[in-house]
Amino acid sequence: MRVDDFDFDLPEDLIALRPARPRRAARLLVADAEREEIGVFSDLPLHLRPGDLLVFNDTKVIPARLSGVRRRGDSNVAVEATLLKRLSPSRWSALARPGKRLKPGDALDFGGLGATLAGKGEEGLVEIEFAEAGPALDAEIARVGAPPLPPYIAARRAADEADRADYQTMFAAAPGAVAAPTASLHFEPEVMAALDARGVRTARLTLHVGAGTFLPVKAEEVSGHRMHAEWGELPPETAAAVNETRAAGGRVVAAGTTALRLLESAAGEGGVAPFIGETDIFITPGFRFRAADGLVTNFHLPRSTLLMLVSAFMGRERMLALYARAVAERMRFYSYGDSSLLWRARGEGQG
Questions:
Q1: Most buried residue among 24, 150, 165, 337 by CB atoms closer than 10 A?
Q2: Is pTM beyond 0.90 here?
Q3: What's the 3-state SS for the chain?
């Protein structure tokens, strides 16, 4: 498969720069292999059945975007770093700009938080050693950092105070993500109450969204792309809930691609098992799904790994047709945009 097999035309004015108010007022595309309809997200419970299970990612976004200066002799250069993964109590890997003007040993100052550039890698990746460590470093990052809005939003406006709440789900509990599991941004207490009244069960897992969210697919062939590993934990009680739901004939619905990726990482022939560690699972058409029957997800970037994932779930031609419908209906795309509920196509990755 070629990466350009997952391309489509998207008018720039359909990229959402703010979420719907209230969040549950976002539009919802519900689709299976043959039918689709468009409503509002608050109607999601009506499309689920008693005994279905919704699985949420409870990762919490940290204020991972740091702005500051590089100090080298009498020369100061403005720099920006987006933290990606903690390597030790005082060291993080990060995406840095301008990467070409940074050298190992450079002194960095992020609003009074001192650091040293410890090393450089490919694609703008660097390692930063901070002057603080552990909880003290966490407090400093919270003081000076900003929400790490995706590039397609950050290129159009700066992050502000509203984003600190908007770019966080109601389930956020485990700090460590540098991007939100955006499918869950639409859930509010009113929706959760309706799901409970409907008899829909819920469960949680944690997957800290990392570098793969920010890095474009540069390979021409899908097989040439390498996914970055992300840390996750699927607890025993969630594994049990998934297996019990499927055994009873209920449907397992992943709230977002991050929840789906960890569910499938933990799935085997005997069902879903507890999981803790890193996963670099790359889901493309032909993948055999073993855990999820449905998926709640936003509308994704052209040529992205997430579009490849939903194409694996629904079939590539079907997914591109649904995206064409969403564009024609002027639905809003990406992190702050509208939502979809997808039911896995028969014959597409059965397991």
A1: 337
A2: yes
A3: CEHHHHCCCCCHHHECCCCCCCHHHCEEEEECCCCEEEEEHHHHHHHCCCCCEEEEECEEECCCEEEEEEEECCEEEEEEEEEEEECCCCEEEEEEECHHHCCCCCEEEECCEEEEEEEECCCCEEEEEECCCHHHHHHHHHHHCECCCCHHHHCCCCCCHHHHHHCCCCCCCEEEECCCCHHHHHCCHHHHHHHHHHCCEEEEEEECCCHHHCCCCCCCEHHHCCCCCEEEEECHHHHHHHHHHHHCCCCEEEECHHHHHHHHHCEECCEECCEEEEECCCCCCCCCCCCCCEEEEECCCCCCHHHHHHHHHHCHHHHHHHHHHHHHCCCCECCCCCEEEEECCCCCCCC
